[in-house]
Amino acid sequence: MPNAPVALPLVNGRRYQFSSIEMSVLKPSGSTEIFIEFNSINYGDALDIAFVRGTNAAPIGWTDGEYEAEDTVVAFYKSALQRLIDAVGPGYLGANFVITVKYSANGEPLTTDVITCRLSGLKDAPAQGNEALTTEATFKTMLITRNGNTPLLNQLA
Fold first, then answer.
1. Tell me: the pLDDT tens digits for 86-108?
2. Domains of the chain, with CATH numbers?
């Protein structure tokens, strides 16, 4: 059996890091704003697949499953999120957004994830100390495409 090819290191071994991220938000008005004033973003998706067992103790097959994206959570610095809320105005909760997250680093390929979502909640938790204040924004997420790839074949959305 032939040996698998060895993966060569990237340029100087560099990898993406948090400062490799650029996040832009398409607002309900149709305008886009780039945000760098956030300190975390968490998003993910999964396919919930069930086994089919019939009268057998072992699985005899599985279902196509149901796709579900997890809530996207962004910790914005307080003033940056307020700009976003002010741009939307009254009715900001429930507003539709498209969040684009780009990863770019020297030696790494440009990777772009697109998150289709609605703002579903905000949480402030100021505390004593010298850290900048943040507001956690939760977005109910309908779909995540990763570098142009949809999670399912024949995806409708």
1. 999 999 999 999 999 999 888 88
2. 14-41+70-146 (2.30.110)
